[in-house]
Specification:
Largest sheet: none
Order of helices and strands: HHHHHHHHH
Strand content: under 5%
Helix content: 55-70%
Number of strands: 0
Radius of gyration: 16 Å
Length: 178
């Protein structure tokens, strides 16, 4: 993961939280650890990355401090649906670039974007793959884990070709560290 990818992940989590999505503290801790491993180093990133599972209740507050230290703000617009679409794009990008498990990210698209957007057609293929991934059982499936991941990656690539980048994103390009 590069610093830009770490910042993109932090921004994506900030967007999710700003939309009122419940973000598991473990994901916040993992994002802090990922950011630290790329070279992003602030006092709050170090503390967040070092939290033990029994200290997870501190993750949301530390995550907010990380955002403040890095100058990351949620990309909310007057249209919260635009943010949901950007989250779907962001999760699709991490599927395609390999920085997240395809099934996990497809599940996030399903629950975090498709459901609140009332299951738009553009997200139907990824929702179908996410459902298959969730129900997948090696012993009783006619599809291999590799084929399942390949299908999710293909659907994510297709999604990125049909979803234009919203104009408000161009006005707020990703932060670069340093």
């Amino acid at each position: 993961m590069s610093e830009d990818e770490a910042i993109r992940q932090l921004r994506m989590l900030a967007d999710e939280r700003a939309l009122g999505c419940e973000v598991d503290p473990g994901r916040l801790i993992e994002a802090g650890l990922g950011a630290l491993l790329t070279g992003l180093d602030t006092p709050s990133i170090r503390t967040l990355a070092g939290l033990a599972s029994g200290e997870a209740e501190h993750a949301p507050g530390l995550f907010e401090e990380v955002l403040d230290e890095l100058g990351i703000t949620p990309r909310l617009t007057a249209d919260p649906n635009a943010v949901l679409w950007e989250l779907a794009r962001s999760w699709a990008r991490v599927i395609v670039d390999g920085s997240c498990d395809p099934g996990t990210a497809a599940g996030l698209i399903w629950s975090g974007a498709a459901a609140p957007l009332n299951y738009p057609e553009e997200l139907s293929a990824l929702v179908a793959w996410a459902s298959t991934w969730e129900d997948w059982d090696e012993e009783h499936s006619d599809i291999s884990h590799e084929e399942l991941n390949a299908g999710i990656i293909h659907a994510a690539r297709e999604l990125l070709t049909v979803l234009p980048q919203p104009p408000w994103i161009a006005a707020n390009p990703p932060l670069t560290a340093g």
